[in-house]
Amino acid sequence: MSDDFELDTDDLARRMDGAIANLRVELASLRTGRASGSMLEPIMVDAYGSPTPINQVGTVNVPEPRMVTINVWDKALVGKVEKAIRDSGLGINPQLNGTIIMLPIPELNEERRRELTKVAGNYAEQARVSIRNLRRDGMDQIKKAKSDGLSEDDQKFWETTVQEITDAHTKLVDETLETKQAEIMQV
């Protein structure tokens, strides 16, 4: 019947890679005491009636290790960009200089570092959940093929393959989290 069943493991792995890529983007937005333009990526500004990323309303620069500047192109949006940064929860107090918004990055205290490691842990758990959901999708495809006549040996082979892909991606999530947590806790 269904001896020609072949699970698209490349697609499964690609989708799991997407979960890890998303995790890396979320972790990059966490500040670690060093200035980084990527920490502003999740912040949206209400520009011209629609939410717009900061990098589309101005130029983001990192002139010093502890300073980020945003040169807002439209003077009318300076106040909205400043408000979006204040409301973002980054814990940064923007300073205005004409159309340039300066963001001095303060030193992180121990309590804030611990909070950020918990946030990073939550991001990693969301990535693990996504990977487990993709694993379940793969296992469901195998079960459907089994009901369509897939042999038990082939079923075991495909289940093992899906589990190996899942384990590899889960391990990658854990390693990424450990690296980020070490970076956050570094004084």
From TrEMBL:
- Print the keywords alphabetically: Cytoplasm, Protein biosynthesis
Asked if the keyword Cytoplasm belongs to this entry, the reply reads: yes
One GO MF annotation is:
ribosomal large subunit binding
Per the UniProt entry, what species is this protein from, by scientific name?
A: Yoonia vestfoldensis SKA53
Role this protein plays: Responsible for the release of ribosomes from messenger RNA at the termination of protein biosynthesis. May increase the efficiency of translation by recycling ribosomes from one round of translation to another.
Question: Which NCBIfam families does this entry report, sorted A to Z?
Answer: frr (TIGR00496)
| UniProt-recorded name of the protein | Ribosome-recycling factor
InterPro entries from the entry? Ribosome_recyc_fac, Ribosome_recyc_fac_dom, RRF_sf
Might you name a Gene Ontology BP term for this protein? cytoplasmic translational termination
The UniProt entry, under Pfam families, shows: RRF (PF01765)
Q: Domain Ribosome recycling factor spans what residues?
A: 24-185
Q: According to its UniProt record, which protein family does this protein belong to? A: Belongs to the RRF family.
* Location of the protein in the cell: Cytoplasm
What is this organism's lineage? Bacteria, Pseudomonadati, Pseudomonadota, Alphaproteobacteria, Rhodobacterales
Keyword Amino-acid biosynthesis attributed: no
> Per its UniProt record, what Gene3D superfamilies does this chain match?
3.30.1360.40, Ribosome-recycling factor
- One Gene Ontology cellular component annotation held by this UniProt entry: cytosol
